[in-house]
Amino acid sequence: MLIDHAVDILAAHGTELDVPVLLAALTTAAEAGEWCAAETPARGLGRLGVAEAVPTLRFLWAETTHSYARADYLAGLTGAAAPAVAAEYLDEATDDCEPHVRDLATGVE
Predict the structure, then answer these.
(1) Which structural domain, as residue segments, surrounds residue 25?
(2) What is the C-alpha to C-alpha distance for residues 29 and 96, in angstroms, rounded to an integer?
(3) 84 or 42: which carries more pLDDT confidence?
(4) What is the pLDDT of residue 108?
(5) In terms of C-beta distances under 8 Å and separation of at least 24 residues, what long-range contacts does 63-66 make, across chains too?
(6) Residues 31-79: pLDDT tens digits?
(7) How far is 4 from 81, CA to CA, in rounded Å?
(8) Which H or E run includes 107?
(9) Which of 10-14, 21-25, 82-86 has the lowest mean pLDDT?
(10) Number of independent structural domains in the chain
(11) What is the CA radius of gyration of the chain?
């Protein structure tokens, strides 16, 4: 869908003016349990440092059944969005089953 491409572009290149669209995409995906659809807006919101995304990112981290998505949720939390909050997840992430999540947690990436 076209909206998916727009979210991809905004997550990678958008500015603070695009935060409402990214937050809406993240929230919609979280409410629907669409773990993969939440990955891109999570990264973008982390890149933009959007603290408003933290509650939804915490929910996604706790509830996802898609282990690979946790890397993007952690990236959102560890980005400028909420480094202090992300620290709470780093210990757990070092034992994650996904190598990408462990790499993020240990600063390899």
Answers:
(1) 2-106
(2) 23
(3) 42
(4) 72
(5) 63/33, 64/35, 65/35, 66/35, 66/36
(6) 999 999 999 999 999 999 999 999 999 999 999 988 889 899 998 988 8
(7) 22
(8) none
(9) 82-86
(10) 1
(11) 13
Whole-number Cα distances in Å, 66 to 4, 13, 35, 44, 61: 19, 26, 6, 19, 10
Please count the helices (runs of H) and the strands (runs of E) in the chain.
7, 0
DSSP annotation of 65: S
The span from the CA of 23 to the CA of 29, in Å, is 10
Helix (H, G, I), strand (E, B) or coil at 82: coil
Give Dmax (Cα) for the chain.
Answer: 38
Residue 13 has which token pair? Answer: 């290149």
Task: Provide CB contacts within 8 A for 67, sequence distance 6+.
Answer: 96, 97, 98, 101
